[in-house]
Amino acid sequence: MAPETTAADAVGEREHPDKSPETSDRAREDAQAEGKKKPGQRAEVSNLDIVRHYFDGAVERLGMRDDLRTVFWSPYREVTVQIPVKQADGKTHVYSGYRIQHNGARGPYKGGVRFHPEVDIDEVRALASLMTWKTAVAGVPFGGAKGGINCPANELEASELQSIARSFMDKIEKVLGPTRDIPAPDVNTNAQTMAWFMDEYGKLHGHTPAICTGKPIALEGSHGREAATGRGCVYMFREAAPQLGLSPAETTFAVQGFGNVGSWAARIMQQLGCKMVAVSDANGAIRSDAGIDADELDRFVKSGGKLPDFGDAETIDPEDLVAVECDVFLPAALGGMIHEGNADRMQCKLLIEGANSPTTPTADAILNQNGVYVIPDVMANAGGVVVSYFEWVQNLQHFRWDEREVNDKLGTIMRRAYREVSARAKEEGIPLREAAYLVGIERVFEASRTRGYVS
Ligand code: NAD
Description:
Blueprint: H1 7-10, H2 21-29, H3 31-34, H4 47-62, H5 66-73, E1 77-86, E2 92-103, E3 109-115, H6 121-138, E4 144-149, H7 158-172, E5 181-185, H8 191-205, H9 225-244, E6 252-256, H10 260-272, E7 275-281, E8 284-287, H11 294-302, E9 314-316, E10 328-331, E11 350-352, H12 361-369, E12 373-375, H13 377-380, H14 383-397, H15 403-428, H16 432-451
Parallel strand pairs: 3-4, 3-5, 6-7, 6-10, 10-11, 11-12
Antiparallel strand pairs: 1-2, 2-4, 7-8, 8-9
The structure holds nicotinamide-adenine-dinucleotide.
């Protein structure tokens, strides 16, 4: 079980703990399977392969029996549905929707729903499994789930997105519920999508705000939820910075993916005094050594501007973003974007994984060998699910906390997760990622054992 630790155990540690020749060797062998990639492209290794690799490493270290490995790897329930939508072109387009409930030993299933043309069942399986370990590492009483629809969200009109969201909810509502499974936003979904989900569910079950989280404030959403994942990443930065000798006023950072997670992380880093020197989104990338104002860029993008057109910055090839000299790199786009083909180009001291599975195992090994301190997705981006937990608690009580209370409680949980995982990493001489998986898997095992599911 995760040991109790103090701040002094974790922060103030000067020696770089994130080096593991064993991991590096194992992952380097996987490079052959991963294949050579051009910089900036997503790796061919799938999100499922990435999560499986880290899961296998952890259960091996824990010495878990083969039968139990199967129990904890395989999802509890997988639902695939057809979503036909009549679009503006007059044709009915058929999309596939997935909801995968991976493990519910620690509480109701919890996980976002993604709208993206590359969504497939394996990606959703990977993300559902990651949620199981993430909720356990954060210590919030949920299991892990994920959903996705393979629609080209960026090309669709709001009315089409609404039809897709409502149709999906109609088809999966039987396996959802405030005590069963609670969706949330992910890539290309947001508070509006959650409002449609809640409304559709309410037609069948009556007003049920706790059916999903990440809702608009006007519909019993929580203060602080929209910013929570980005804010959680910044709490991670604050924990790790002293170890790496970084002071906020001197820190430069780059963000890959200026969406919900990336833009909030950037704005909050900037509030601390850090300087954003490069940023990208699906439209392109820009850099400026003098700094790019994250608040102004956010306003510019939200008012319809394209990121590469933002003034006072040099447009760069998105493939070169990883090579920009900076202290902190924040991947906040899609999975597999840091891979064998570009990991060696990274110049940062600290990588905080805002995105899910942004780093392939081979890239992870390269970064470890190059002395880059990696705070893994399974803890770094847990801020979203932590404030989703707060939203759920508030909804069950029909009571609202103010933003300060939400942010303070988020900070407490993120700091605790960081300190518990980094203490374990130090104890075993392993990187944070391996330690986080050990902590998460042990907690899920313990809940399953005491329920009597496994022995
Ligand atoms: P989002 O849709 O708001 O933002 C995604 C951003 O990535 C957009 O700006 C998009 O333009 C950009 N992008 C897409 N392809 C890109 C590319 N090839 N290069 C650079 N940028 C690209 O999504 P989000 O909610 O911010 O999620 C981002 C990541 O964070 C995902 O991996 C998601 O699973 C993860 N995450 C999100 C939350 C949350 O609360 N929203 C919680 C945990 C993890």
